[in-house]
Design goal:
6 strands; Rossmann fold; 6-stranded parallel beta sheet; 6 helices; 199 residues; globular; 17% strand; alpha/beta
Length: 199
């Protein structure tokens, strides 16, 4: 059986970011993975976590599904704290052994010392900004794609040897015409594309 760890990196701000959309997206993902034969474990960072238990989950998981809002163009600070603590604590056991370089072998390059080879990850983000701001040289992100704008998190997983599945994002979440039903359908379709035809 395949193992998926659902990571809820939401940090609550009362009245502004309560976490309901993040919860609904993760429930959709959990239903999808369960119906497709995955064993599921979950972490919700706003509820607290134990580093040793998280490392056991990281060792167990074949796939990481990361759901996060984007606050000020990056992860919530609790989400970044989680990433820093868990990936660092896994040195020599779960996440990475070194930065990959070797004094004796110059062909070994930086970023090749990960221990998570064979594991995969998928990132899913919620944004207030419109989707049109990405891949747009006149947009706020200066032509960057969604993945380029979130390169730090991608490179963290890649530094440790994990391989990316196509990402997902939700935009304009505060607009009056925002449709939760359509959003969950869009996520379901992306999950189907990623995991029923390629996994």
């Amino acid at each position: 059986m395949k193992h998926v760890l659902l990571l809820n990196l939401h940090q609550k701000y009362e009245g502004i970011a309560n976490g309901n959309l993040t919860r609904d997206l993760l429930n959709e993902a959990k239903t999808f993975f369960t119906l497709n034969g995955y064993e599921v474990k979950e972490t919700t960072i706003d509820e607290g976590y134990d580093v040793a238990e998280e490392l056991e989950k990281f060792q167990w998981a074949d796939l990481f599904f990361v759901q996060s809002p984007v606050y000020w163009m990056g992860l919530p600070w609790l989400g970044k704290k989680y990433i820093d603590e868990i990936f660092s604590a896994g040195v020599n056991t779960v996440t990475y052994a070194s930065d990959g370089r070797s004094r004796n072998d110059p062909s070994k390059t930086y970023g090749s010392g990960g221990l998570m080879g064979g594991k995969r990850y998928m990132l899913s983000f919620t944004y207030n900004c419109p989707e049109s701001e990405f891949d747009n040289t006149k947009g706020f992100f200066d032509g960057l794609s969604l993945d380029e704008a979130n390169i730090a998190l991608h490179k963290t997983f890649q530094f440790c040897g994990a391989t990316q599945y196509p990402s997902f994002s939700v935009h304009d979440i505060y607009k009056s015409e925002f449709s939760l039903e359509n959003t969950l359908n869009d996520l379901h379709h992306r999950l189907e594309e990623n995991f029923t035809s390629k996994s």
